[in-house]
C-alpha cells in the first residue's frame, strides 16, 4: 500500500443508472454520440470507439478510448439499467461527462462511486 500524499493522477467514476427508457439503451449509434458528447463536456479527447449491439430488444456494450483514459457503458434495456465507467486523468473532468450522460438518459435513480487513482 502506498500512503504518499501526492495528488491523484486521475479520477474513476462508476455509476449505475436505474429506470432508464429501454429505447435510450438499445441504439448503439445514439449511445456512441452520447459518450462522445460526454467526453467533449469533460474536455477529454476521443481516440477510438467500439460499440456492439446484442440484437433486437437487447443491450449495448461500448467503449470510448480517450487520450485521458476511457468511458464505457453496458446497457440492459429490458431492465432499464446502464452501468457506466468513466476514468480520466489530467485536466479532464469526469463529473461533467457523467452529468451529460445523466441529462441524456434521465435515470430515475443513480448510484455513484468516485475513486482517486494513482
TrEMBL record:
<comment type="function">
    <text>Catalyzes the decarboxylation of S-adenosylmethionine to S-adenosylmethioninamine (dcAdoMet), the propylamine donor required for the synthesis of the polyamines spermine and spermidine from the diamine putrescine.</text>
</comment>
<keyword id="KW-0745">Spermidine biosynthesis</keyword>
<keyword id="KW-0068">Autocatalytic cleavage</keyword>
<dbReference type="GO" id="GO:0005829">
    <property type="term" value="C:cytosol"/>
</dbReference>
<keyword id="KW-0670">Pyruvate</keyword>
<feature type="active site" description="Proton acceptor; for processing activity">
    <location>
        <position position="74"/>
    </location>
</feature>
<keyword id="KW-0210">Decarboxylase</keyword>
<comment type="similarity">
    <text>Belongs to the prokaryotic AdoMetDC family. Type 1 subfamily.</text>
</comment>
<keyword id="KW-0865">Zymogen</keyword>
<feature type="active site" description="Proton donor; for catalytic activity">
    <location>
        <position position="89"/>
    </location>
</feature>
<dbReference type="Pfam" id="PF02675">
    <property type="entry name" value="AdoMet_dc"/>
</dbReference>
<feature type="modified residue" description="Pyruvic acid (Ser); by autocatalysis">
    <location>
        <position position="69"/>
    </location>
</feature>
<dbReference type="InterPro" id="IPR017716">
    <property type="entry name" value="S-AdoMet_deCOase_pro-enz"/>
</dbReference>
<dbReference type="GO" id="GO:0004014">
    <property type="term" value="F:adenosylmethionine decarboxylase activity"/>
</dbReference>
<dbReference type="GO" id="GO:0008295">
    <property type="term" value="P:spermidine biosynthetic process"/>
</dbReference>
<dbReference type="InterPro" id="IPR016067">
    <property type="entry name" value="S-AdoMet_deCO2ase_core"/>
</dbReference>
<protein>
    <recommendedName>
        <fullName>S-adenosylmethionine decarboxylase proenzyme</fullName>
        <ecNumber>4.1.1.50</ecNumber>
    </recommendedName>
</protein>
<comment type="subunit">
    <text>Heterotetramer of two alpha and two beta chains arranged as a dimer of alpha/beta heterodimers.</text>
</comment>
<keyword id="KW-0949">S-adenosyl-L-methionine</keyword>
<comment type="pathway">
    <text>Amine and polyamine biosynthesis; S-adenosylmethioninamine biosynthesis; S-adenosylmethioninamine from S-adenosyl-L-methionine: step 1/1.</text>
</comment>
<feature type="active site" description="Schiff-base intermediate with substrate; via pyruvic acid">
    <location>
        <position position="69"/>
    </location>
</feature>
<feature type="site" description="Cleavage (non-hydrolytic); by autolysis">
    <location>
        <begin position="68"/>
        <end position="69"/>
    </location>
</feature>
<dbReference type="InterPro" id="IPR003826">
    <property type="entry name" value="AdoMetDC_fam_prok"/>
</dbReference>
<keyword id="KW-0704">Schiff base</keyword>
<keyword id="KW-0620">Polyamine biosynthesis</keyword>
<keyword id="KW-0456">Lyase</keyword>
Amino acid at each position: 500500500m502506498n500512503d504518499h500524499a501526492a495528488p491523484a493522477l486521475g479520477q474513476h467514476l462508476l455509476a449505475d443508472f436505474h429506470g432508464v427508457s429501454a429505447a435510450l439503451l438499445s441504439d448503439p449509434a445514439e449511445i456512441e454520440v452520447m459518450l462522445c458528447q460526454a467526453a467533449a463536456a469533460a474536455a477529454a479527447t476521443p481516440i477510438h470507439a467500439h460499440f456492439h449491439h446484442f440484437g433486437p430488444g437487447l443491450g449495448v456494450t461500448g467503449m470510448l478510448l480517450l487520450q485521458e483514459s476511457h468511458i464505457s457503458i453496458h446497457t440492459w434495456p429490458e431492465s432499464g439499467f446502464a452501468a457506466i465507467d468513466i476514468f480520466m486523468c489530467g485536466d479532464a473532468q469526469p463529473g461533467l461527462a457523467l452529468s451529460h450522460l445523466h441529462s441524456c438518459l434521465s435515470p430515475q435513480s443513480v448510484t455513484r462511486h468516485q475513486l482517486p487513482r494513482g
